[in-house]
Amino acid sequence: MKPGLILDLDGVICDTAHFHYLAWSELASEYGIILTEAHNEALKGVSRNDSLTYILAINGTQLSDDEFQSALTKKNNRYLEFVQEMGPQHLLPGVAYFFQEAKSKKLPLALGSASKNAVLVLERIGLADVFQAIVDANTVKNGKPHPETFLKAAELLGIPPTQCWVFEDSAAGIQAAIAGEMNTIGIGTPEALPLAQRHIPNLGAFDFNWL
Ligand code: B16
Ligand code: MG
Fold it and tell me: Which residues line the pocket of ligand 1, CB cutoff 6 A?
């Protein structure tokens, strides 16, 4: 059986992580909160809801349920403005090569993203048709670091978790993959992702002989 490749979206396939950061920073500043690089790292792979909870806790801002929901909508609308401007030029380095290689080797591919906007982003960057399975925040109950996203992706591919490889740029995502007993490739440094088995700067640096 061929191994399954399960890819995160933001920060692995395209640089939406930066757009999330800009949109959250704008919102956070309304509450007198300045988001640092360290905050940004902690927010990667974290659901929209949990991200806002994390941000508000920075200075103890309390919101009513209605205010919380409005803040989520505001952040998402700002984020979607960035997404509307996206195209294939926003693919991270090596992504096109990675998909060519995976296709020529007939390796099953799944997306495992914590974003509710994953399909929209895939359409914008021209990758809506490359995955045999797409699992995002609209289709799971438990976000990363819970393994549900990746376990569901493996199930849809019909491949045992231990034969799947997860490509992730977030600590929460690496934890999720480990909890699902999958192999992990960290997109980033060992300092940022100490639990990942291997580290590469981008998908173009992946060596298919590792599989
Ligand atoms: P949305 P990934 C995650 O996507 C992002 O890394 C994270 O920063 C974001 O808060 C989360 O999606 C939710 O995104 O607001 O679009 O639903 O990295 O798991 O592909
Ligand atoms: Mg990510």
Answer: 8-11, 17, 20, 43-48, 51, 76, 113-117, 137, 170
